[in-house]
């Protein structure tokens, strides 16, 4: 049900176009990660779906996702997770900066 709600919300965001495409995509990504539909691979799935949302629906280039390897522990992954935690508190600025870094 949460996934359907997210898709319905994303359709509304696109219809209203009140926010820039990158902001819509970051909010989509954050919400999809929080839905956590799988036991493993939720981040990879959310990044893929966000890139497809950007390219195919919003006509924007894919995110660079910090230009590093998110599958391994390290600075890039740490910054990504910290940005997701900031988004938990409705602060999307770190995630917006990270996704285009």
The first-level CATH class is given as Mainly Alpha
Number of strands: 0
On the 0 to 100 scale, the average pLDDT is 94
Q: In terms of per-residue confidence, which ranges show pLDDT below 50 for 5 or more consecutive residues?
A: none
Radius of gyration, in Å, reads 13 Å
What structural category arises from helix and sheet content? Answer: mainly alpha
The largest pleated sheet is described as:
none
Tell me the CATH topology: Fic-like fold
C-alpha termini separation: 33 Å
Question: What do these coordinates show?
Answer:
The chain is mostly helical and about 100 residues long. It has one domain (about 1-100): Fic-like fold, CATH 1.10.3290. The chain has five helices and no strands. Helix 1 packs antiparallel against helix 2 (about 20-35) and helix 4 (about 75-90) runs antiparallel to helix 5 (about 95-100). The N and C termini lie far apart (about 35 Å).
């Amino acid at each position: 049900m949460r996934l359907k709600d997210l898709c319905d919300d994303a359709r509304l965001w696109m219809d209203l176009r009140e926010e820039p495409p990158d902001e819509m995509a970051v909010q989509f990504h954050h919400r999809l990660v929080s839905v956590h539909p799988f036991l493993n691979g939720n981040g990879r799935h959310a990044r893929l779906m966000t890139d497809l949302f950007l390219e195919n629906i919003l006509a924007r280039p894919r995110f660079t996702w910090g230009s590093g390897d998110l599958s391994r522990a390290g600075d890039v992954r740490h910054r990504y997770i910290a940005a997701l935690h900031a988004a938990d508190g409705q602060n999307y600025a770190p995630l917006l900066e990270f996704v285009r870094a």
